[in-house]
């Protein structure tokens, strides 16, 4: 019995006993990483499908003649800047600098809202030009379909991210969350920004 009790204590004290994370990662952060991995596969599937469609058709509208690339470039710049402000907020939270966290979270939210406004303007212009989910004036229905689905899916992520950051800001102001919660929100926001870089490159530039 004594030998068995010693073995049980050794198991409970090990990193794989379930009592603590073997990778020193908290449960909420681990769940966010798992979600981001699954979401990465979804976006990869969308972009891979877009590439297959383009290659199989052999011809594609000239994006510079349809989209305002200056607007989209500005949207991209704003989103990248919002990643920088998010990084500052996470750093301040880890240092315990409570007063700097909220302003930089709100700046990140502002960046997300400006991006969404730019996307709404772009969609409005695109629709007024005659683009629909299953047809457009440029003769390639897949062109507008892939645009609406891919950018719309990403825009939904940005919208969720803005709400997520607002809730995080409110909870931080009430001192009801730990710095790790801000870091987890930052992981989501950086992911959304990184995905847009790929979308911008493939849908608008190449």
From TrEMBL:
GO terms for cellular component: plasma membrane. Residues 1-206 form the Heme-copper oxidase subunit III family profile domain. One of its GO terms (molecular function) is cytochrome-c oxidase activity. Gene3D superfamilies: Cytochrome c oxidase, subunit III, four-helix bundle. It is found in: Cell membrane. GO terms for biological process: aerobic electron transport chain. It comes from the Bacteria. It is a multi-pass membrane protein. Pfam families: COX3 (PF00510). The chain crosses the membrane at residues 30-57, 69-90, 102-124, 145-167, 187-205. Its main location: membrane. The keyword Nucleotide-binding does not apply. Belongs to the cytochrome c oxidase subunit 3 family. This is Cytochrome oxidase subunit III. It comes from Candidatus Segetimicrobium genomatis. The lineage of its organism: Bacteria, Bacillati, Candidatus Sysuimicrobiota, Candidatus Sysuimicrobiia, Candidatus Sysuimicrobiales.
């Amino acid at each position: 019995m004594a030998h068995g009790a010693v073995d049980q204590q050794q198991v409970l004290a090990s990193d794989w006993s379930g009592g603590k994370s073997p990778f020193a990662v908290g449960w909420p952060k681990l769940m966010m990483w798992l979600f981001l991995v699954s979401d990465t596969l979804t976006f990869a599937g969308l972009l891979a499908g877009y590439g297959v469609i383009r290659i199989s058709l052999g011809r594609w509208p000239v994006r510079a003649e349809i989209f305002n690339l200056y607007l989209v470039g500005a949207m991209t710049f704003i989103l990248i800047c919002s990643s920088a402000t998010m990084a500052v907020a996470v750093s301040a939270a880890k240092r315990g600098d409570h007063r700097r966290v909220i302003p930089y979270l709100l700046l990140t939210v502002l960046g997300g809202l400006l991006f969404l406004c730019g996307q709404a303007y772009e969609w409005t212009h695109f629709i007024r030009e005659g683009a629909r989910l299953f047809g457009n004036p440029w003769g390639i229905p897949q062109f507008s379909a892939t645009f609406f689905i891919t950018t719309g899916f990403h825009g939904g992520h940005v919208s969720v991210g803005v709400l997520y950051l607002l809730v995080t800001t409110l909870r931080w102001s009430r001192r009801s969350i730990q710095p790790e919660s801000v870091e987890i929100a930052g992981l989501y926001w950086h992911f959304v920004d990184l995905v847009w870089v790929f979308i911008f490159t493939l849908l608008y530039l190449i």
